């Protein structure tokens, strides 16, 4: 019988473990937001003015009109996934686990939307975001452009690691054909 040498290095600390640590304590509640300066610059560069901030709350909304995940103060609606987005140009910075449902809703409603998401090549959603966007803009590293919220700090949760990107998804009739012609 052949023996195998396995060395257990134990808990890895330091820079090598930073991403794994961040993922294990990643905020799934979305208690963070894009810095307002970055938001304004992004809208200028893409040359769009979103109308409604989806998946935000009164303390982290970047627009006067917003849809919240819970009942709070000033939201126009609760549970953005159960609302229509057709009359809006939504700014969507969803909690990462909600991203598949967001992309599905954009496809179903045939709308244009601005999505803020981490650039994670290993994720299945990466392909759709990168290959099927009308326009994209690399923003910066998450720790440079995202502001953590109070509960994120109190619970010692982490911001999503890596670079953050803005993807303009355009599923309006006639736009998908133009998109296919690009590739």
From TrEMBL:
InterPro entries linked to this entry: Hepadnavirus_pol/RT
Domain of life from the UniProt record: Eukaryota
Protein name: Uncharacterized protein
